[in-house]
Amino acid sequence: MIPAAFSYVRAGSVEEALDELSRHGGAARLLAGGHSLLPAMKLRRAEPGVLIDIGRLRELSYVRADGDRIAVGALTSHRTLERDPVVAEQVPLLAAAARRIGDQQVRNRGTIGGSLAHADPAADLAGAVLALDGVLVARGPSGVREIPAREFFTGRCRNALAAAELLTEIRLPAAPGRSYAFEKFSRRALDWAVVGVAAQERPGGGVAVALIGMGPTPVRATAVEEALAAGTPAAEAARLAAQGCEPPDNAVASASYRAHLAEVLVTRAMAAL
Amino acid sequence: MRVEITVNGQPHSREIEPRLLLVHFLRDTLSLTGTHIGCDTSSCGACTVLLDGVAIKSCTVLAAQADGCAVTTIEGLAGEDGLSPVQEGFRQCHGLQCGFCTPGMVMAATALLAERPDPTEQEIRNGLKGNMCRCTGYQMIVESVQWAAANGGAR
């Protein structure tokens, strides 16, 4: 399968990428690792006129401890998240989710920013960042703004970025020593999750629970979180996992099966905490 | 656009269309047909090559993204002293039947051993998760990688 023709620009800096984005308007797409965009282009589901390759912007590949927050550059690969010692100690949920993505080849190329910006509702890292109450940093022509993960995912493969904005960093509250769990169910070893659960014990008490594959965007299982906060036993709280969700009903899994999976996986996640 | 890509130690400079995939650059432009196209959707791993030493699926990378980089394909593994340990392992342990997935398997296994010279069976199975074989049932592939680990590793 061959993508439709496009013109290719390699950005040498974030500023250059922003200039190119502004120049081409909606016709351009940013290419990071390319592991969501290129498959879509090969299927002709995406036909950008211009690809702006930001894959070599090393300035966007980093993990930094910044007080009680961890800053992750948007071009940090899944492979790095799997092994980075700061991630392992401060936000191990992120490493646990990264480890479950695709396979070694995909994790070598895929980036956290690319995955989040692509906004697939079943993306593993999206669940982890949502459960961690992450904040996404975007740079655009009018400066820098922070978007909470809860507001970032606006629909199936839709995000809150403006056309000329670039996702540069993900900020996560450090959670050293706090328990976490990542559970997902896939049909085959390297498949996307049918349903997945990311759970994180919060610094202020309580547990954050995020679900993937349960609607057009990753979502927080608010009913489960509230029940747990009210002292409801975990198994009982897990029964509320699908409350308020609109799980897809398709060839991969029926909506009712997904709701069942959500309950089972939340139960497992609570047991693992 | 013009790209300069070193493949198996040999520099190549070519004028290409930006949409050319790395796997087509290898197979069609350079006639290195050892790298196979299986699913063409980054699932099966038959097109696995090393890009600057890292295993990737060349059906999901543009040749333009490999500009200035070094690629190693199955054709680049054997040296003057014969097959690489991973290749020899597949031969010794009968790690293939039809052979279609083999170049990708060998490249993925080579990358795995470069990182983990002494992997457990589970680590081998995890490391090869992105490579599908429809003949062997994987058992003999795992044994081939174990043989390679005990006989020289990733070289």
Automatic annotation (TrEMBL), chain B:
Keyword Transmembrane helix appears in the UniProt entry: no
Keywords: 2Fe-2S, Iron, Iron-sulfur, Metal-binding, Oxidoreductase
Gene3D superfamilies for the chain: 3.10.20.30, [2Fe-2S]-binding domain (1.10.150.120)
Domain spans labelled 2Fe-2S ferredoxin-type: 1-77
Keyword Zinc: no
Protein name: (2Fe-2S)-binding protein
